[in-house]
Write a structure and sequence with these properties.
By secondary structure, the chain is mainly alpha-helical. It contains 14 helices and three strands. The chain folds into two domains: about 80-140, no CATH class; about 140-360, MetI-like (MetI-like fold). Strand 2 (about 120-130) and strand 3 (about 130-135) form a beta hairpin. It is a multi-pass membrane protein.
Length: about 375
């Protein structure tokens, strides 16, 4: 006699629906403490910054606060472009020519840039289609801070990615003392940023007390008086060097974690098929390393966009990042409303970068 197995009773759709609703309700209840904490330590302060950015509030002052609308944002971000006409000789009415250079003398930007409703200052002059123009801004320092921060971010993150990938590939291979090398490579990242900035301040000193001036002098590449931190052409490069030295190990650590998730069997199959190391790197390593690389790029880019300590310690008020200029307005000028507007602008720029990275690199996709 053949025994037949009894089929398990099917759960009705209504019962499944009730179970799903209970699980969903439980999930929301478990999320309540997290939501409360986020409201207290993140969303509420952020909302306060947004509100303060529309006022003229002064930091540590008893002055009455007034609502000013978008005045702070207009003061920060207003720019204009004006054509510079040639200067005319008052006696002859002819165009002035510089006797030393033989070039046309143009009117001064201060005479061309508008003063109402805001006073514009010169930010940059440039030539276009044979004409000379001046770019004016109500706050050239903040426009320059945005340019400095974005340039610093792009260059430093690119170098950290390239160097970090190289280091990760090296320490991922098998060799004697690999563990000690992995531990020692994290030393720059473990050093407090202010401490590392002071170390680099000594090494970048503008005389032969500094390590780099001494090294370049003995190599015959300088006179030992290169002002790395005072020259406007070298300041940003110095900031990039400091950040790359400190943060490349962090990038290498993230990429190393990604490399260790790639099965060795794939490389063995590549060897059998006759694929060389470069071919394996392009067809195996890079595609499978994309998720870790995407996360590393997102973290480092967002961190670099809010860089503060390196600029503040090494450059002070000679060159700003967005965050250090925010600090200057809040502590130096005590203009809390304007500083809050700067904070909102920084937040929006970081938000745009984050969304762009996530969409471009597919961090939120199932493949990543």
């Amino acid at each position: 006699m053949i025994e037949t197995k009894k089929k398990a009773p099917l759960v009705s759709r209504s019962k499944r629906s009730d179970l799903a609703k209970r699980e969903e309700s439980l999930a929301y209840k478990l999320l309540i403490p997290t939501i409360i904490i986020l409201l207290l330590i993140a969303i509420y302060p952020l909302g306060q910054v947004f509100v303060t950015s529309f006022t003229d509030r002064q930091f540590a002052s008893g002055q009455e606060t007034s609502f000013v609308g978008f005045e702070n944002y207009r003061r920060l971000l207003s720019i204009t472009i004006k054509e510079l006409p040639p200067a005319l000789d008052e006696e002859t009415g002819d165009v002035k020519i510089d006797s030393d250079t033989g070039k046309v003398v143009y009117e001064r930007p201060i005479q061309i840039l508008p003063r109402e409703p805001y006073r514009y200052r010169e930010y940059k002059q440039f030539n276009f289609l044979g004409n000379r123009y001046v770019l004016g801004a109500t706050d050239p320092d903040f426009i320059d801070a945005i340019r400095n921060t974005v340039t610093f971010t792009v260059i430093s993150v690119f170098l950290e990615l390239a160097l970090g990938l190289g280091i990760a590939l090296v320490v991922n291979s098998h060799f004697k003392g690999r563990g000690a090398i992995r531990a020692s490579m994290l030393i720059p990242w473990a050093v407090i940023t202010v401490v590392s900035a002071r170390m680099w301040e000594w090494m970048l000193a503008s005389n032969r007390v500094g390590f780099f001036n001494t090294l370049l002098y003995y190599l015959g590449l300088g006179d030992g008086q290169i002002a790395f931190l005072a020259s406007s052409n070298l300041q940003l490069a110095a900031m990039v060097a400091v950040d790359v030295w400190k943060t490349t190990p962090f990038m290498a650590l993230l990429l190393l974690a990604g490399l260790q998730t790639i099965p060795n069997e794939l490389y063995e199959a590549g060897d059998i098929d006759g694929a060389g190391k470069i071919r394996q790197f392009i067809t195996i390593t890079l595609p499978l390393l994309k998720p870790a690389m995407a996360v590393a790029l997102v973290f480092r880019t967002l961190d670099a966009l809010r860089v503060f300590d390196v600029f503040q310690v090494l450059l002070g008020q000679s060159k700003y990042s967005m965050a250090s200029y925010n600090y200057f307005q809040l502590i130096g000028n005590r203009n809390m409303g304007l500083a809050s507007a700067i904070g909102v602008v920084i937040f929006l720029i970081i938000f745009v970068f984050a969304i762009s990275y996530i969409k471009m690199l597919g961090v939120d996709s199932d493949e990543a």
